[in-house]
Amino acid sequence: MHVGGEGGDSADVELNLAPIIDCMTVLVAFLLLSASYVSVYVLDANLPPLVVASEEPVAPPNGITLSAMLKQTGELELKVSGAETSSELFRVDVGDDAAAERVRTRITEIKTKWPETKSLTLNGEDEVPYHEVVRVLEELRPAMANISLGGF
Amino acid sequence: MSRKKNPFLSAPEQSQEMSLNITAMADIFTIILVFMLKSFAGGGVGSPPLSGLTLPTSNAGEAPVEMIKLEIARDTVLLEGRPVMTLSDFRFRAEDLEADGTSRMLRDAFAIERSRAPASADPSATSEAKMMVYIDRDVPYATVKRALASAAFAGFSKFRLAVVKEEQ
């Protein structure tokens, strides 16, 4: 770079890269150390309104309450209570997409019959591992967007 | 008379200075820096979950945002990165539980965090406090229920469960 002025005095200005390299080295090292290499995502899960702690949610008048209980045996019990009462058992093993589809289809049938049904309460037995609850929650989500965690 | 090269005389010392061309190094560092900044900015969550905590996998999910963070690992429960209580192999100790199955220590910790949250202009939104929950995949559902019920006592009713993208 050439800086010129009047009278012909000029000075060559050289760009000193050393401090730039120093800064970049520190920044790269910092970012490498602080980077997280695991992609974390979130699933929404709400709790039913905590008015009175009860095992069974209160059914709306002339409507139904839909709940699902995940058992330690790997079975999912789909329960309808209120204006209609029913209980069905499904196997929801890992990788069994057909079984998951059957559950979703049944939920969709219930929603069609009872259009005011807007949520499902997912419960699990005490020893059911958390990752199973998450898996079932994710599998049921396409059929019911609003899924609450229950059992409180 | 030709001058012969005297082998006993050492060659004149050549300059030992080597000029290091750091232009290429600057280019590489710039590229690495831009790449790291880009991936850092798009990462989302500022602080990673507790090391040793294995999240469950999932195919679905949204990108997380910063909010109050609860972590449940094998031996400890952390709220906002601070240990609140200890667990025994993923489970609450009996002496830590109240008659209703919740934990007094957790409820108090949640209440303190809730009070720290900025007041919302909309009073009806006070019951919809959100919490980001990192729970180890092997935690039994009983522990999850007790922890979330303790949070519900402090007014937290909406939870965002942290999962790891399932490898396909």
Question: How does this model look, in words?
Answer:
The complex is a heterodimer of chains A (152) and B (168). Chain A has 152 residues and is α/β, with parallel strands linked by helices. Chain A is 30% helix and 28% strand. In chain A, the strands form 2 sheets. Chain A has a 5-stranded mixed β-sheet, covered by helices on one side. Chain A has a two-stranded antiparallel sheet with strand order 1-2. In chain A, strand 1 and strand 2 form a beta hairpin. The longest helix of chain A has 17 residues. Chain A is elongated, with a radius of gyration of 30 Å. With 168 residues, chain B is α/β, with parallel strands linked by helices. In chain B, helix 2 packs across helix 3. The radius of gyration of chain B is 29 Å and the shape is elongated. Chains A and B meet through helix 1, strand 3 and helix 3 of A and helix 1, strand 1, helix 3 and strand 6 of B. Strand 3 of chain A pairs antiparallel with strand 6 of chain B.
Produce a short descriptive summary.
The complex is a heterodimer of chains A (152) and B (168). Chain A has 152 residues and is an alpha/beta fold.
**Radius of gyration of chain A from CA coordinates:** 30 Å
Strand arrangement within the widest β-sheet of chain A reads 6-5-4-7-8
Task: Determine the strand fraction of chain A and express it as a percent band.
Answer: 25-35%
Strand order of the largest sheet of chain B: 1-6-5-2-3-4
User: Largest chain-chain contact?
Assistant: A-B, 44 and 53 residues
What is the CA–CA distance across the termini of chain A? 73 Å
Globular, elongated, flat, extended or rod-shaped: what is the shape of chain B? Answer: elongated
Overall radius of gyration of chain B: 29 Å
Q: What average pLDDT do the residues of chain A reach? A: 81
**Number of helical stretches of at least 4 residues of chain B:** 3
User: What general form of chain A does the structure show?
Assistant: elongated
SSE-based structural type of chain B = alpha/beta
Mean pLDDT of chain B: 78
